[in-house]
Amino acid sequence: MATRFEVVLPGADAVRLRAAAEEALGEVERLEEMLSPYLETSEVAGLNRRASREPVRVSPELFRYLEQAAALSRLSQGAFDLTVGPLMAAWGFVLGVGAVPAAAVLEEALAQVGMQWVELNSASGTVRFHRPGLRLDLGAFGKGIALDRAVERLREAGVTSALLHGGTSSIVALGVQPGGSPWRIGLEGPTSPTDPTQRPIEVVELHEESLAVSAVWGRVLQTGAASYGHVIDPRDGQPVGHTQLAAVVLPSAAESDALSTALLVLGRDGLANLQAARPGMRCVLLGR
Q: Helices marked H in 111-213 — which ranges?
């Protein structure tokens, strides 16, 4: 998934814990081989090649993930969308060389985006794209899925205390730390070259929960005085400009991954709707 996954397992039985960790990380690799659009042999890559021409039968597991993604897209009013790839390409963020797209290029990309154009047929277990050029990319969702499945493997191995992360932006806490205190995670804000000792903007305590963080820094397009972050609003094709960071805490890592992206896109205006849909959701929003 083009990032680093780590598992922290406190305890005295190093051999048993290492075996459990290797099985959990093996589950991450299995899901990479299923979900990555960049691996020619993955199930998602095959779906992207064929689904705009014909219905494609997929595995029941992948079908469940796509149903969950479609439900989260509806919940977020399209702010979370697995089909945003053409817009990322139009802005040059896929290859890392950004450029403000021409209006015609942006219009063409927008025509290829939207989970409403993905037909999920539960009776036949097939997927069909109703827009040419539409592609699925589970980048804003896949790490959370992988972490949820990895935690399942740890539970099956009898592990009761662990901390897992993918790329430090998707984190799951299993149980509590030795001694009974919750796991504590510091949220980094934008780096400040004048303050090398910058403190976290927030410290989040986790117990049987996941934390996902979405932020606009990291990949930035600078054109003159204008600066554009790499997170694109799937609804209008424009980079998010009103919010710098959104962090969400929920039991499911897949949901916190998706909804942190949605909250970053929606900003403060979308907070009430998301919290009403997910009572108990905790979040941090950092505006401009």
A: 142-156
The neighbour count for residue 195, using CB atoms within 10 Å, is 8
pTM, to two decimals: 0.92
Phi, psi of 94 (to 5 degrees): -70, -45
CB 3 within 8 A of CB 32: no
Burial class (CB in 10 A: 0-12, 13-18, 19+), 88: buried
Tally of CA atoms within 13 A in the half-sphere of 69 that contains its CB: 28
Q: Residue 41 carries which side chain, given as an amino acid letter?
A: T
Least confident of 27-41, 95-109, 133-147: 95-109
Angle between helices 253-266 and 60-75 (to 10 degrees): 30
CA distance 98 to 91: 6
pLDDT tens figures, 13-46: 999 999 999 999 999 999 999 999 999 999 999 9
Tracing tokens 């081989």 back to the chain, one arrives at: 33
| Cβ–Cβ under 8 Å, residues 216 and 183 | no
DSSP string, 55-110: -EE--HHHHHHHHHHHHHHHHTTTSS-TT-HHHHHHTTTTTT---PPPHHHHHHHH
Distance CA(128)–CA(119), nearest Å, equals 5
